[in-house]
Design a protein that fits this description.
This protein is of the alpha+beta class. The protein has helices at 2-9, 17-22, 44-57, 109-117, 133-138, 146-149, 152-155, 184-188, 222-234, 247-257, 275-291, 303-314, 316-321, 341-355, 381-400, 425-438, 451-454, and strands at 13-14, 37-39, 61-64, 81-84, 91-95, 100-104, 121-122, 156-162, 168-172, 197-204, 206-207, 211-219, 241-245, 266-273, 294-300, 328-335, 361-364, 369-376. The protein is built from 17 helices and 18 strands.
């Protein structure tokens, strides 16, 4: 089969060791596994050819975008063919009047936003990494703007995907709502390549705000920072971004990004709108922060200063890792109802301190989502055990509070074991039935997302 595909794709099929290794891992901590070959199609038609060839022989197929996932989502656990979609990088249409666009799966969010800026538009979903939009759809990505603009599930209007038998489906329409049949778009968004290979995505767009204002505020305690978040959300203060860094993460960012922020729990806040509304919303938030022990409020509409602060936030993962050079990191995430957020974060920080681990906390707290980067020495069995047991406690804590084992990283195979703690057996059987119906031979990204089917 590999030889047949090589005849068709030429040098766009690779079995070079370096290429296989690059496509056998993501940016997380989970063990890698290499595919047998990597293909680089440049059209949906070529994806169809590859999938049909693999289906005929029962060969696994794993879609791959930028490789920035964190839970082993793109690891080819059973070998097979990895389909790298980055050559499919065309922006197919932008409809300014309707505020939507259609792109191939390999277009990255930064590439799209550079093109949209000429029309006064932008796409707001920002997971930090310059991920591909197909990958973002496949993992139901979220990020710093989710508190105002939602996640990928809220902003994908439709998809083109290649199913396990090589057939092509087109889901959704350009209409903003529909009651016509099952919502297949939402079924595929977040399926992590286990139900189909996404090759095109239609997206909702937004006008670039007239004014963007950003602020930072330090707090004497984590509880004060999180209670500020909860009150602002409950009172309806329209923030666009709302990020929390604990004191460990602030110190890491200072070292890594050359900042001089006070080493204390910190909120990064952003407001979008007119000059008047942005100023009003910022003043309202400042008042709430002050009531909960906030200090050092700094406010700006200067783009360069805002970008400097947000660049440091987006480098938080690497800044955290730099606290212990040579250490491995478990970059885990959970999400809880906003009313339980303070309790969950404070308990988590206390748990970390008791464990003796180095583990900064950072999160998109406006929607109850936060991350912990757990650093450990892979050569020290006691640290390995401590890191893994802490991760399990964190997830159990979030699930007990009505939350989830992953707010945005996805399941991959890294969080497969925690699905049973979140979904009852009937729900897992339903997921397995959907998987079996669309992929009866289990060739699409096997070993991911659905524990009842894959063991």
């Amino acid at each position: 089969m590999i030889d047949d595909l090589r005849v068709r794709l030429g040098d766009r099929l690779s079995t070079a060791a370096a290429v296989l290794d690059e496509h056998g891992r993501d940016e997380g901590w989970h063990p890698a596994a290499t595919p047998d070959a990597v293909v680089f199609p440049d059209s949906t038609a070529e994806v169809v050819e590859v999938v049909r060839a693999c289906a005929a022989r029962g060969v696994p197929v794993v879609p791959f975008g930028a490789g920035t996932s964190l839970e082993g989502n793109v690891t080819p656990l059973r070998g097979g063919v990895t389909i790298d979609l980055t050559r499919m990088g065309r922006i197919l249409e932008v409809n300014v009047d309707d505020l939507d666009c259609r792109v191939e799966a390999g277009v990255t969010r930064n590439t799209l936003n550079r093109a949209l800026a000429r029309e006064g538009l932008f796409f707001p979903i920002d997971p930090g990494a310059d991920a591909t939009l197909g990958g973002m759809a496949a993992t139901r990505a979220s990020g710093t703007n989710a508190v105002r603009y939602g996640t990928m599930k809220d902003n994908v209007l439709g998809l083109t995907a290649v199913l396990a038998d090589g057939s092509v489906v087109h889901t959704g329409t350009r209409a903003r709502k529909s009651s016509a049949g099952y919502d297949l778009t939402r079924l595929l968004v977040g399926s992590e390549g286990t139900l189909g290979v996404i090759t095109e995505v239609s997206l909702r767009l937004y006008g670039i705000p007239e004014v963007i204002g950003g602020a930072v505020c330090s707090f004497a305690s984590l509880a004060g920072a999180v209670r500020t978040v909860i009150e602002a959300i409950q009172l309806g203060v329209p923030v666009a971004r709302l990020e929390l860094l604990d004191d460990v993460q602030v110190e890491a960012c200072n070292r890594f990004s050359g900042l001089s922020l006070p080493v204390a729990p910190l909120l990064l806040v952003e407001f979008h709108g007119s000059a008047i509304t942005v100023a009003d919303h910022a003043a309202a938030f400042e008042g709430i922060a002050a009531a909960h022990g906030g200090s050092g409020w700094e406010w700006t509409t200067d783009a360069a200063e805002r970008e400097r602060l947000w660049a440091a936030r987006h480098q938080a993962y690497y800044a955290g890792k730099a606290l212990r050079p040579g250490a491995l990191a478990i970059p885990t995430d959970v999400c809880v109802p906003i009313s339980r957020l303070a309790e969950c974060i404070v308990e988590t920080r206390a748990d970390i301190d008791r464990s003796g681990l180095v583990a900064p906390i950072v999160g998109h707290v406006g929607d109850g989502n936060f991350h912990v980067v757990v650093l450990f020495d892979p050569a020290a069995p006691s640290e390995v055990e401590a890191a893994h047991t802490f991760n399990a406690r964190l997830i159990a804590r979030a699930q007990a509070m009505g939350g989830t084992c992953t707010g945005e990283h996805g399941v991959g195979y890294g969080k497969l074991e925690f699905m049973a703690g979140e979904h009852d057996p009937a729900t897992l059987r339903m997921m397995a039935a959907v998987k079996r119906a669309l992929d009866p031979d289990g060739i699409l990204n096997p070993g991911k997302v659905v524990p009842a089917l894959d063991g």
